Amino acid sequence: MSNKEKLLCLKDFHKDTLKPSPGKSPGTRPEDEADGKPPQREKWDSRIDFVLSVAGGFIGLGNVWRFPYLCYKNGGGAFLIPYFVFLFGGGLPVFFLEVVLGQFTSEGGITCWEKICPIFSGIGYASIVIVSLLNVYYIVILAWGVYYLFQSFQSQLPWALCHQPWNTETCVEDTYRKNMTLWMSLNSTNFTSPVTEFWERKVLSLSKGIDEVGELKWDLARVTLPGAAEGIKFYLYPDITRLGDPQRDCLLLGCLNSGTSFVSGFAIFSVLGFMAQEQGVDIADVAESGPGLAFIAYPKAVSMMPLPYFWAVLFFIMLLLLGLDSQFVEVEGQITSLVDLYPSFLRKGYRREIFIAVVCILSYLLGLTMVTHGGLYVFQLFDYYAASGVCLLWVAFFECVVVAWVYGADKFYDNIEEMIGYKPGPWMKWSWTVVTPLLCVGSFIFSLAKYTPLTYNKTYTYPDWAIGLGWVLALSSMVCIPMVVLFRVVRSDGSLINRIKSVAAPREVNRWAKDSEGSAPFVTTGSFKKPTHVIVETMM
């Protein structure tokens, strides 16, 4: 039977066996309902749903508050050269690998590695640790955004002028900069702007350091919980039979992500250029990255524009939308991977929803440390270490090595051909085998060589114990890979070589047996024994 005929069989099989029953979960098989089996995973309604959902997870706050600043700081247009080298040599190949691996195994971020190479299932655990830590602090950014959004519904923005209850005697409005004689007569280094005081004294009630955590900021703490509620509602499982061409989709999504970053740079620096001209300063004095851009520089800029409240509302709505859909994907990636570890228990009844609620509430409680008076210091600690580039490079390196060298790049390409009917171009295989691992190793070493301890606003230096805690957060994900390797080898029988061979071989799973949970038999050759539909799990 030709590959084309096989694909037609897959499509017919999918249509015949996965028709939703009235009043039942989409994709539930009648025989599963009769046997009391858990429902099948839900499907995308169309290809555009998949593209937009993944784009929502891809395009986040970093596109707005990190990429434009990094582009400006590292040579402007010249920065795009190394950026595109890493995009096509590292970013797109790793993304395509993860999507195809999820499609091939029909599993989440942990159990997919159990199937192709159990000894390296620590890759999945490392990814979930990173995502779990990310979920703790990412929602705090949305809390700040919601707070600013509600404060924007005023004719006079509260951060535009001094003389507010939270302002100090050192608060000086930026309009004084236009009067250069008056401004030069003042010792400007001793004065602060109203937008900075609103951020540090009103929103954060910032303490002197991470040692002084202080009380909870209840106005922010109440805002973070709705994000958890939205995470509970998010319950999406895609079906690859609706996608068509995963390689084209990955390329499209990667270019969409880069294009969004590039276009946002025009928007951000147009506004910052306007602000620099209004203040009579160089643009380098107003360009910032991270929370400083979103909650100090940009709010200051819109306060100088006509209809400032209108532009402020639009900006913070955009910020919320960018962050919220990314939060959805992060929560779903975490939940799917954990549920797939214990499917027979967590997929019954409402246990999955209860489990999601428990995970979200735990993340919320941990995130409360970031809405205290010293919360910004805790937030920066998580942002700088927990989901740092070093951790991501470590995971991406092992993903490529395991697929290309342990499992086999040629075998993986055969699996792709079996699923979509043809083999992708050779660039992806070359990238997984050589290019991406080399880029990851080079960037990893360079990042460690150029490492500088974390500071806040270039004035506050974190104590040694806080730096140590940050490295614990970073290593908590990285150690998962060697720990699982050691654990699997120690727990197996035989000589050392036989142990490694045993735990490195793909695991055989008969998922179409009567006691199975509804997926395809997976054998050591990397093929499917029976026609089946395949599912994408976009892994974090």
TrEMBL record:
InterPro entries: Na/ntran_symport, Na/ntran_symport_taurine, SNS_sf. It is found in: Cell membrane. Keywords: Cell membrane, Disulfide bond, Glycoprotein, Membrane, Metal-binding, Phosphoprotein, Sodium, Symport, Transmembrane, Transmembrane helix, Transport. GO terms for molecular function: gamma-aminobutyric acid:sodium:chloride symporter activity; metal ion binding; taurine:sodium symporter activity. Residues 1-18, 29-41 have a biased composition (Basic and acidic residues). Residues 1-41 are annotated as: Disordered. It is a multi-pass membrane protein. One of its GO terms (biological process) is neurotransmitter transport. Pfam families: SNF (PF00209). The chain crosses the membrane at residues 77-97, 123-150, 250-276, 307-324, 354-379, 385-409, 430-449, 469-490. Disulfide bonds join 162-171. Belongs to the sodium:neurotransmitter symporter (SNF) (TC 2.A.22) family. SLC6A6 subfamily. This is Transporter. It comes from Hymenochirus boettgeri.
